Amino acid sequence: MPQPVAAPVLLIVDDDRDIRNLLADHLEQHGFRTVKAADGRSMQAALEAGPVDLVVLDLNLPDQDGLSLCRSIRDASRTPVIILTARGDPIDRIVGLEMGADDYMAKPFEPRELVARIRTVLRRTSGGSDPVEGRHADFSGWSLDIAARALTAPDGRLAPLSGADFDLLNALIRNGGKPLSRERIRALSTVADADDRAIDLRVSRLRQKLGDDAKNPALIRTVRSLGYMLAGPVTWRA
User: Where is the Response regulatory domain (predicted)?
Assistant: First the structure.
């Protein structure tokens, strides 16, 4: 007889007790289990105490900056992070995604939207998204492990990828060498309201991680009036 699947564990990190409790109650009503932390130190203790499937992270914490905590989570594991904060400036969104966040929501927020975004991130990071031609996509000496969301460079080193990096690279790879418009990138992004400047910056950052010459890019090419495309063939393997 099949065993029931355990509900995902969400770690809520926020220094406001009322918000922590409200979030926990709402998320538990939607089938999640929750753990709560008021600051960076208790967040680290919770991560060490047991497995966590996703972190909902505030940026304004009393002991450590939330962006630094996001980077520390990303450096130590592939646990997805959704930033939930009162800092809603577009540059904060960009920096948060570049630090490795998988999504970014500004307060005040709609609780039902947060639940939807959590489920979307969990599906994507658990490998439960669209079927793929294979587990690995090889291109120009690089290899992207779709299920593990891991990028291996031609020299064998593991290149760090934020959630936004993975989404963009995965979309370019799956687009089969055809131009991908900014509007399409926006639709595939976890941040639907990203403007053209934010998308261009995201492409620029990904080029840097791939060692692609910004003045004469060979891997991610700009197609005038159309968007961006991954140059060269992609080979899929198990």
Answer: 9-122
